[in-house]
Amino acid sequence: MRWTWGLLLFFVGQTVAYTIPALRFEYPTMRGFRASIPDTPGLQMFAFHARLNKPFDQFEEGDYTEDVTAPDGDGRWTFDTNKPALPNGTIIYYWVYVQFANEGYWLTDKKHTVTRTKATVAPKSTTTTTTTTVKPTTTTPPPCPPTLTTFNGGQPTCAGKLLFEDTFEQGSSFAPKWQHEVRIPLDTDSAEFVSYQSSPENSYIAAGRLVIVPTLVTQTADYTDERIRTGELTLAGCTSPTNNPYECQRKAARSTILPPVVSAKLNTKHFFRFRYGRVEIRAKLPKGDWIFPQLYLQPYENYYGYADYASGQMWIAHILANRMLAAADGRQIDGHRLRGGVLITNTGPVRSDFLRSNLNEEHFGDQFHVYGLVWTPEQILLTVDGFQYGALRTNFRQHAQQHNLTQANLWSADAPLAPFDREFYVSLGVGVGGVKDFPDHSLTGPSRTAKPWNNTSPKAEYFFYQNRNTWYRTWTEPELTVDYVRVYAL
Prior knowledge:
- By secondary structure, the protein is mainly beta.
- It has 2 domains: 24-114, Sandwich (Immunoglobulin-like), CATH 2.60.40.2140; 161-489, Jelly Rolls, CATH 2.60.120.
- It is built from 4 helices and 35 strands.
- The chain has helices at residues 225-230, 396-402, 460-466, 468-471; strands at residues 18-20, 24-26, 33-38, 43-52, 64-68, 76-81, 91-100, 103-113, 130-131, 137-139, 150-151, 162-166, 179-180, 194-196, 203-206, 209-212, 215-216, 232-234, 249-251, 261-263, 265-267, 274-275, 277-284, 291-299, 313-318, 325-326, 337-343, 355-359, 369-375, 380-384, 387-392, 424-432, 443-444, 449-450, 480-488.
- The strands form 9 sheets. Strands 12, 15, 16, 23, 29, 30, 31 and 35 form an 8-stranded antiparallel β-sheet that branches. The protein has a 7-stranded antiparallel β-sheet with strand order 13-21-32-24-25-27-28, with no helix packed on it.
- The longest helix has 7 residues, at 396-402.
- The two termini are 15 Å apart.
- Mean pLDDT is 89; it is low at 1-15 and 119-135.
């Protein structure tokens, strides 16, 4: 079942009543239908959910559904589909949610019987309609329903409420919602071959979207091949969470080089964090060899410790962005394979025990998708475009103890999902390379070129850099583009 709690936005405040007009149903072609309401000043969203010949139990996702956020050219808020065949007598069961002047209103338990005549098969401009016989319903916002969701230090909220949203329409400013990470990744993570910085070349807002793009450090005039091999990098404004000097500066020598790629990573740590809820991110993922997007939830206080993911990490969406990449055993592991889930350790095969995947015919960087994660005290669910492809209901403490992970002793025995029982914040970034995500002996591209570094080699980053003339040619669309980020209470 698709999760739609976020659609039931309950607002508490002024109670200006709004009447949802009776829906107008039309049949512009021999297939499908159109359902609409007239535009009214103050309307913000028209959410329509329908099923054919099957009533709803409650606020479930429909088989035919859309969140309409703007009126059409005829001054109506319109849901339109040409998919179903609708013989006369078909019953369209539906429910509607309307957001008006920041208040929520809905029609529930509604149905419409299809009566198709020649007059109802008409172009969109026609005024001939078939309407429901349901009388307009006036509702007022309900009281605040309880929820287990809390935010920003345990503040309470209401069930279904939109807690955080960024549609990146505020111009070019990241503040106050987002903060840049400025640091060099450590071996305790993936040791990505990048430095995360706040350069406007690597992260910017354009046309109502956030763009994060990795670049070669040699594209900066100050960086030559010699400096990468013998120079020094000191990051002003370093944001190392543990004040580790190795995250803030590096001196190149022998097998150690300066990070050959500059990228960006942003988070909501100082603006918004939460415990339990539903996250929804509409994004277009990058494409190019040895790149991976980072759509994560990260622990706010690292309550159970910082090392070895003792406080956990949640992946909303992750791919290995190569257009073609196969593991040594022939498995397809490129950008057609979406991964999501959680990390409770950085060690060996256990690292991926709680990652779930979904294969797609198209590369996930070909178009925008909506990536979702639902986090409750009992489970973590993973979705893409409303389709649930993974569910985690394991007792992580027991699993960690079975694999002799020392952090398991820190997790509460009364919280099956510990360490995922504390507040987390949203993190967005783009990583490159590293020593954890790309399997050794994997083959990329139609020519099946071998991965140019070994994850256990002390010169892994150097061998990656030496191969730049090969992999950099594939970076034609290396950017992560984010349309919106939303977090809802359960």
